[in-house]
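re: ur question from earlier - yeah i can do the single chain one, its not a big deal. heres the input i used so u can compare w yours
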Amino acid sequence: MIVTHGDEVRADGAYRDGVLRITIACTGVAAAHFSLCLHVKPRHLGDAYRYPTEIAMKTIRVLAILAFAAVGCSFPLLNPNREGFAPWEKLPGGNGITWVNKYTHDPGIDPLYLASFRFDDETALQLIVETFGLSPLPADTDVATFTETMPDPIDWFPLPNVSSTYVFADSNSYPGGNREYVSNLWVDSTQNLAIIERTWW
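and the output i got, formated as tokens:
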């Protein structure tokens, strides 16, 4: 086999285009010519296998980034705590709770869940409060909510009448909190209707 930096060989003659040419001589058979489109630049063909191609290097870089993300980061997509994060999954209907509307905005990171529900009595409402670790909103404190980031209009939010509000006080959106998580509960006791939000970032 002879390797030359010669011309491309076509059926109607040779053309000078800088493409690497391999000439293979076989016993009893006329020499055959093949164009080899390898990006070996000035390297000898015999060394080409030692150098990864540009596509291979890009693939290696992508795989390395994904491996680093899986091991060193806590993306919601990779976090096992994502399972059951939706309110209606963490606390299925029953025990005086009936889920009415459900909304999910989940672009892959920073998921937001919003749901409305009816509660039979104060005991059922307290079940929600305790399950999600909520406490009454302190006086003169604004609710930390991500509902303004929802891309879709929702006709059942917000409640037209709110008689009480509960929040997850350990959220770092409030003084002294250290959790990157928000949960809010807006209650209309006159209608036994409430809306809960759960969000992390």
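The first helix runs from residue 54 to 72. not sure if urs matches, ping me
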